[in-house]
Amino acid sequence: MAYDYDPELAPWAARLAPVDYTDPVAARAAVRAVTERRPPYRPLGAVEVSEAAAPGPDGAPPVPLRVYRPAARDARPGPGLLYLHWGGFVCGGPDALHPTCLRLADRTGAVVIAPAYRLAPEHPFPAGLEDAYAALLWTAGDADRLGVDRDRLGIGGESAGGGLAAAVALLARDRGGPPLRMQCLMWPELDDRLETVSARAFTDTPKWNRACAQASWGHYLGPRHRPGADAVPAYAAPARAADLSGLPPAYVGACEYDPGRDEALIYAHRLIQAGVRTEIGYWPGTFHASVSVADAAVSRRMLMDQTDALVRGLGGTAHRTPHADTEEGKRT
């Protein structure tokens, strides 16, 4: 199929081959290689980076965390953002998001917490979700030490991390957990059924296609649940949630040539219909996570849109120069 990519993105499209998620070992090696080749992000101000661990869910090990704190922030508690990494539920960790988390802390003034949740297929649903929720409980419980205002705590993530962020918001609502000021869902993985127009059509798109999504859901749901079956829980696939009322305000980002485009937009519209204040970022000519092409003007717009939404939603402080919202580098 021919795609009308943004002119600055088009030369990259053929070079950004999708990761083969059918083989988790090979997929992890590919993601590590991408991470190692990526240029570093240079913050405008100092960002303190430290390691921590949250108590794990019952019977599970502690959840490793990486904490990013803007050093120049004043002594008053400020916003906090739990941010979950991409990788199809199978790959990645804080290293994969390190430049992104530096950027978010630097640009928004938020303390950013990146958990290393357990990965499928070794640890299928609900392991990764429960780890992410445990990280949220730790963040709220340690808010004073972290310098985080408990009333300005957000959840966010990209791709699989965006889907987990949506699920954490559902869990926090249903379990009476820490109140969330907002959720930031960037090209989120939300629906195992893969029945939307975009999920059916985009079989050959860069970085992420229908086959990637199929393999990812199969690993994440594991032997207890078959993708597309009626019994898949909404906490695994938030698009299945019947009631979206009472969730925190949302920012939902979607790319035009992304199999997950429609599930993201449908979820955003359902949030609006449920009375949840929701903002949508939609960028024509883009593909899944195409912010990786840092030189493209549309990539800079995507990142500025996200930064602005987080600053508004969490009550942070934007830190920007004319070129402040370029991405950390090319994930190629």
Automatic annotation (TrEMBL):
Sequence ranges assigned to domain Alpha/beta hydrolase fold-3 in this UniProt record: 81-289
Entry keyword set: Hydrolase
Domain of life assignment: Bacteria
Record protein name field: Esterase
SUPFAM superfamilies recorded: alpha/beta-Hydrolases
Organism: Streptomyces albireticuli
GO molecular function: hydrolase activity
Pfam families per UniProt: Abhydrolase_3
Region named Disordered: 313-332
Alphabetized Gene3D superfamilies for the sequence: alpha/beta hydrolase
Compositionally biased tracts (Basic and acidic residues): 322-332
